[in-house]
């Protein structure tokens, strides 16, 4: 089947200890990690405990063969990490194992390339799990799930998503049946009704003030590259005169990098001026909740 035909889906499963592979700590960390490797955006992602004691499993759906191969090749280079790549045609939804690196971690497989027992990855179990939580039409699970993209039916809500790390914004959706209201708390401490879905956002940008008026784009980029993987930056100019205002904004690949930039750059000297740096108020959408949750554990 030709690459980029749009008729195949891929599921990447990465297993290992989060102590040696930090991207296995939570789905957000894994999704941020995989974004740096592939060209297109990843689809549904999840991180859950593995059947292998003390390890985690990260699952992520991918659309293109090139992206699937790039992600597989990248994670197989990580120390002590098991990687399994599955493929399916969207016409049947039944995932099959394409390849894995079991033999690199279990050299005594006696000619076999995959060990379901030792890796904790069973092909049948993968299809049952996906059918149960993603609405993938497998022989065991044939109930169709209406969604805007293939894996949107699984709410990506995890214990680490505290009000301090995410802000919730209400997304109006058509209600087809009465539901109990579900509430969470926004970053400002206000209650938010999440019964009809919500977007998860986080601040990945910084605001820099008191820059030297001689600073140019290359000067700003050189400064930002010292603290993280910058994906966008802009010098702010006066709307009337077009002159540089001594301020700038920048966005990083992750919230952690943005916070690191604030800690490192704030109140430091740059081109004879003491600059002031804080997190920007603009936020980036990092996930979506399409089913009601009770975030505080109460019955409200």
From TrEMBL:
Species annotation: Pleomassaria siparia CBS 279.74
InterPro entries: Nucleotide-bd_a/b_plait_sf (IPR012677), RBD_domain_sf (IPR035979), RRM_dom (IPR000504)
Domain RRM: start-end pairs: 204-282
Identification of the protein by name: RRM domain-containing protein
Keywords: RNA-binding
Gene3D superfamilies in the record: 3.30.70.330
Keyword set includes RNA-binding: yes
GO molecular function: RNA binding
